[in-house]
Structure formats: C-alpha cells, structure tokens
Amino acid sequence: MIRTQYVRFLPYLIFLFLAFQVPFGSLANVSETFHASKEKPADTTFQHDENIIVEKEFDAGKMIMEHIVDNHEWHIATLGHTHVTIPLPIILYYDGEIYTFWSSRFHNPEHAYKGFILEHGKIHTVVESDKTVYDFSITKTVFALLMSCFILMWIFISVANRYKRNPKSAPKGMQSLLEPLIIFVRDDIAKSSIGEKKYERFMPFLLTIFFFILLNNLLGIIPIFPGGANVTGNIAVTMVLAVFTLIITTVSGNRHYWVDIINTPGVPWWLKIPIPLMPVVEIVGIITKPFVLMVRLFANMAAGHIIVLGFVSLIFIFGSISVSIGYGVSIFSVAFIVFMDILEILVAFIQAYVFTLLSALYFGLATIEPEHH
Amino acid sequence: MELITPGLGLIVWMALPFLILLLILKKFAWKPILNSLKDRETSIHDALHAADRAKEEMRQLQFSNEELLHQAKDERDAILSDARKIRDTIVEESKDKAKEEASRIIASAKESIENEKMAAMTDLKNQLADLSLEIATKILEHELADAKQQEAYVKQQMDKIHFN
To answer: Long-range CB contacts (< 8 A, 24+ apart) of A81-90?
Structure first.
C-alpha cells in the first residue's frame, strides 16, 4: 500500500520539478514581448507583403511570435526583397462548401482570394459574416508533422525489415542507433512503470510518442527547411498527444483504479462524506495529468525556441542602434545560441523521455493490481 | 493569444496522421522489432544457460570420471591382494600336499622295505632250512660212511657255517 501511494505522487513530484524550473522565466518574457508588440502600431506590411518592403523599426516580440506560431506557408529565406517560401494548400470549410487553393494565392495587395482574407495568420471572410470559417489547411506545422510521420515510417519500417531478415545477428547502422533507445523505452520506461506483465500492450504507443516527440524536437532545432517548424512547441500537437494518453489511461483503467478514484484509500472519511472532496479532486486529477503533459512539452519546446530567437533579436536590436554594436553583440549572441542549441538537444531527449515516462506511469497506475495483505 | 489556443484544423491534422502512424508502426515496425528483440534476448539467455549447464555437466562428468578411476584402482588393488592371497594359499596347500605325499611315500617305502626284509628273512629261513637239510643229508651220508670222519666232518661243517 505504501508503494502504491508513493507511485501515485511520483508524477506530481516530477511535474513540479520539470514544469516549473525551465519555462516560467521565459514565458514571462513571452508575455512581455507580446504586450510590447500589441502596444506598437499594427505593422502588417512587415511580413505579409512582399511588394512594399519598408524598413521599419525591428519588433522582436512580433518576429519571435511569427516564428513560434503556425503559418499558412513555409517561409525559408528573404533574399533582398524576394521572399523564398513554399506555398502550402489551404483547405477551408465555409457555409457547407469546401475551398481548396494554394496559399500563394493570398500574395496580392489585399491578401484576399475567393472572398477570404488572410490576416495575422487567421483566415476570415472579406465580408462580415456570422458563419465561421473552418480552417483545415495544411499549415507549416501540419506539413512538418506529416513529413516527420513519413520519416518515422521510413526509418522504422526499414529497421524492422532488417530485424526480420537477420533476426539473430548483431544490430547494424541505423538499427544499432535505435536499438538502445527502443530497449531504453522498453526496460526503463515501460517495464519499470507498468510492470513485467502488462507493459507489452502499451509498447507501440509509448515507442511512437517517444520517437515522434524526439524527432520533432530535434527537427525543430534545425533552423531551415525541412526543420524549423515548431511542431512539439505547438499546443494543438501536444494536446492531441496528451489526449491519446488520457484515452488509453481511461480505457485500460481496471476496477482497482476506479475504486481508488471514487474511494481513495488512506484518506480520512470526512474528506469523502458528506462532501465528496477527495473524489472530486481525483476526478479532476484524471484531466490535470494529461493537461500537465500537454503544457510541459509545449512550454519547454516553445521556450527553447523563444530564447534562441531572443538572442537573434538582440543582434538586430543593437544593430539598429549602431551597426558596430550589432556586430559586437552578435559574437555573444551566437555563442549563446550555440549553447542554447546544445541545451535544446538535451531538452529534446529529456522532454521525449518525460512525456513517455509520465504516460507510462499513468498507464501503470491505471493497470496496477491491488496488493493482497 | 494564438500561441496557447489550439486550432481545430491542426488538432484534426495531428490526430489523424498520428493515429495512422501509430497503427502502421505498430503493425509493421514495433511488432517485428520487439518480437525479434525478445527472441534474440531469449536465445542469448538460453545459450548462456545451456553453456552453464554444459559446464556443470562437464564438471560432474570429470568428477564421476575421477570417482570411476578411483573405484577401478581400488578394485584392482582388491583383485591383486586377493590373487596374492590365493597364490599364498595354493602354495601353502601344495606344500602341505607335497609333504603329505612325501611322508606317504616314505611310509610306503618303509613298509615295502619291511615287506622285502620279511620276504628275505623268510627266504633266508627257507634256504637255511634247505641248507640245514642238505648239510644234514651230507652229514648223514658221511656219518653213514665213517663215523669218525663223520664226526670230524660235522665238526668241520659246523665250523664252516656261521649264522649271521
């Protein structure tokens, strides 16, 4: 019983440790820069218009946010006055009809096409309408995550084929790189949190999220195409991953799990009757656990990108004061960016590990057998 | 606030491909990889176990070999000592037998000597009787011829005869 209680509180402890240490400072910066950008006059020409490039005052907050959030096209570089972008498909559902066209159609002075307008990364109708525009576009994030799905399939199916062809030979090439990770996920995450008997059922999910998060974290560090998309630093992506964990935990929860939630053992009776305080806390806990997963991964990855972009911005901020100061600062900025990128590689692994470990712990809690005593 | 509001389109586009990725990888990647990892581990484990067992068997075999050798040595010693004993008894027996035989031969020799002696004595007695008769005859003949001479003769004859 003591062991069960210990396991119950372990995720919270890990959560406290990991969620609050890294991102809080940087999130404060985000909101600051965010507010700063709001206070300034709207500067729509800066990004969305290639034809009129005006040298405006550099707005770090705006630049950072544009890099962090999703986009309807994949901007690669700006050479002089030409933007090198990959146009992505726009898919809209509006008033019972589906509209599909390339995002490059918005490249006109009005940013409008077929009655839709792209403003601040959101698509509205040009004419005011009470019907909502459902945007199912293949955005930068969607494109990047689809790409990473294909990369994962290609890598792991080819590795699996090698396992099938030479089942008993020593691992080779890509296989020898991935085998320790797979064994790590199996032995140190799944077996230790779920237990020898039941871990096998959860292995495909745990391996998939581990490698999905890891690959996208690592691709996010690479600044240019095919990397650079902030997939795991996007709250929708982490939400879907967390919801998967929630669904699997809820579906595989055994009788013991639900009984513990309704009638938590080791808690004074007056916390359950007449006001069911503890059951309510436990039921809220079902939701908060994946919520924490969602926020932690998102905040960590977004924060890492924001810090790196912040250092880049420093160069331009100082450069706008004086070019020579800009050059001077760039030395320090580049040094810090290199340091941050190395840290980000570490964070990429840690976050993939933490997400997978906590998912496994939740599965373990849901499937734990009551101890006889 | 776009940063922390999940977009509907993105949720759909994340959920669907991720589910498909999960199912495809589960069927075509994780299953064969995990199975073959498990197979490999069990085969290595079994091989190590078998090697250990073989070593143990080898050790026991060596032990039993030594035991066997030891037993054989003991047996050989036992056989040798037995043989020695048997040989000794045989020699002893034959010695006894020989002695017995010798004494038997000696006894029979003595007996036959006695017999011979008796026979010789009998013969001698018979001859003596014959001789006495002959002498008596001759004396009688001579006596009959000349009394004096007869007497002298008898006397002479008597002198000649010596009983041994």
So the answer is: A81/A50, A81/A53, A82/A50, A83/A50, A86/A225, A88/A137, A88/A138, A88/A139, A88/A140, A88/A143, A89/A137, A89/A138, A90/A123, A90/A135, A90/A137
Neighbouring C-alpha atoms within 13 Å toward the C-beta of A81: 8
Number of C-beta neighbours around residue A364 at 10 A = 22
Torsion of CA B15, B20, B25, B27, to 10 degrees: 130
**Amino acid identity, residue B65?**
N
Q: In what order do the strands lie in the sheet with A112-113?
A: A112-113, A116-119, A122-125
- Cβ A234–B10 below 8 Å, yes or no? yes
Instruction: Look up residue B7 and give its amino acid.
Output: G
Q: Is A200 on the interface with B (CB under 8 A)?
A: yes
Locate the chain A residue with the closest alpha carbon to B24: A153
Segment A121-168, tens digit of pLDDT: 788 888 877 888 888 888 888 999 999 999 999 999 999 998 888 877
**Structure tokens that stand for B137 in this block:** 């005859």
Q: Chain B closest CA to A157's CA: distance in Å?
A: 5
User: Which of A68, A152, A239 comes nearest B11 by C-beta?
Assistant: A239
- Digit-coded pLDDT (tens) for A301-315: 999 999 999 998 989
Question: Which DSSP state fits A188?
Answer: I
Q: Which chain A residue's Cα is nearest to B28?
A: A157
ipTM for the predicted complex:
0.78
- For B15, which residue in chain A has the nearest alpha carbon? A240
Q: How confident is the model at residue A67 (pLDDT cuts 50, 70, 90)?
A: confident
Q: What residues pair up with A73 in beta bridges, in sequence order?
A: A87
* CB atoms B43 and A168 under 8 Å: yes
Closest CA to A59 of A281, A317, A331, A327: A317
pTM of the model: 0.72
Beta strands in A208-294 (DSSP E): none
A167 to chain B, any CB pair closer than 8 A? The answer is yes
Task: Tell me the pLDDT tens digit for each residue of B58-71.
Answer: 999 999 999 999 99
Taking the CA of residue B49 and the nearest CA in chain A, the distance in Å comes to 17
Q: Which of B3, B24, B26 sits opposite A68 (nearest CB)?
A: B3
Across B6-10, B69-73, B99-103, least confident range: B6-10
